Task: inverse folding
């Protein structure tokens, strides 16, 4: 029974994510979610209490996507800077393809219209990028002028700026190419003994020897 | 009479900008704007027809801020790359200090909840940055690997990413320092014969010999 309740919760969450992503928070009603999921409105309220709590659950599911992805990249036997660049491509693909990630991002952008406190993004990414840059520094991969404590913030801003702009110009399909362009600009500054084009070409592909299950596989 | 109607329109626009910036589009009513401006709701409707049209007017006033600022920087007798960096600091200060610019940015972020098509940002900035980078290329200021057609997009994304993140983390007061940090990361890649720290230190200040009137001066 536990498993079945969990499956119901998940199918409601995914239906909600589809609608929030398409129509936004204000444009989505509990009865829309009921209709798309094939469950009653009563079931939606039973599992999530309110539309606010459902939005919170989608944003939390968005955040829950990252630890596993980060861990998989942490454990790869590659230079730290290359793991960082690879991780960024994996995150960009999740933003392009994963409905829960996309819906969470849209809800977060609309946070001021949602009567529920959502978790704060960026802080965790700044810490993760700083950690990888510190490893790169220890390994002698970084140019001398690079300061991980300072530059991790700029790297995260540049990365999320791509999302803001590509969302605005409705060219999210170009996100992965735009990310490659961004690294071709950043890496000549970051890298000691730079080979930006080689690193970007390698990092766009999957992790060597990694589980190739795409993020969000199993989601409808 | 023309001048007085114009003054009324402007004072309504500024009252609306204050409220849109503080409370967002959904949280602001025509009667709030009437109250703050000391004019009747009838006057608001007479001059702007609807809350949607008032939001559109604020966003258009935001956009109208830039041509003059760009022109002032174009005419400075400085290397093109330094004009670009100076322009970015002027824009960042406008985002920090100018209520119409801030309100326009917030309304634009909330565009999916506003029943009126707003002008698209970023496109004009990408063209402006590309133009300045092309000048810098002609002057031999750019490193050989830099491609203005490609990299102008990344520079604009990185710049606006700062705004997204600083708005989220509520540290917009840190925007100018964060912009300096961003340039310290980007310039070693962009510049031929780099002196990033010197350029950033000079560019944070006003244009040499320029009119020092801050953007938004004369606004309440």
Result:
């Amino acid at each position: 029974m536990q498993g079945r309740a969990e499956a119901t919760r998940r199918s409601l969450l995914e239906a909600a994510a589809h609608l929030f992503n398409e129509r936004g928070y204000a444009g989505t009603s509990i009865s829309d979610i009921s209709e798309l999921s094939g469950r009653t409105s009563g079931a939606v309220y039973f599992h999530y209490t309110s539309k606010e709590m459902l939005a919170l659950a989608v944003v939390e599911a968005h955040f829950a996507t990252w630890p596993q992805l980060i861990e998989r990249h942490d454990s790869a036997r590659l230079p730290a800077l290359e793991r960082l660049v690879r991780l960024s491509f994996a995150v960009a693909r999740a933003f392009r393809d994963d409905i829960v990630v996309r819906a969470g991002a849209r809800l977060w952008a609309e946070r001021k219209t949602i009567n529920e406190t959502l978790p704060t993004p960026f802080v965790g990414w700044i810490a993760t990028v700083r950690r990888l840059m510190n490893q790169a520094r220890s390994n002698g991969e970084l140019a001398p002028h690079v300061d991980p404590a300072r530059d991790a913030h700029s790297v995260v801003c540049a990365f999320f700026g791509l999302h803001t702009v590509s969302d605005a110009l409705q060219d999210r399909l170009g996100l992965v190419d735009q990310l490659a362009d961004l690294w071709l600009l950043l890496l000549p500054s970051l890298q000691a003994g730079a080979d930006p084009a080689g690193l970007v070409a390698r990092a766009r592909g999957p992790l060597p020897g990694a589980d190739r299950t795409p993020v969000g596989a199993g989601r409808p």
Observations:
- The radius of gyration of chain B is 19 Å.
- Chain B touches chain A through 40 residues (CB under 8 Å).
- Residues 62-203 of chain B form a domain with the Tetracycline Repressor; domain 2 fold (CATH 1.10.357.10).
- The mean pLDDT of chain B is 89.
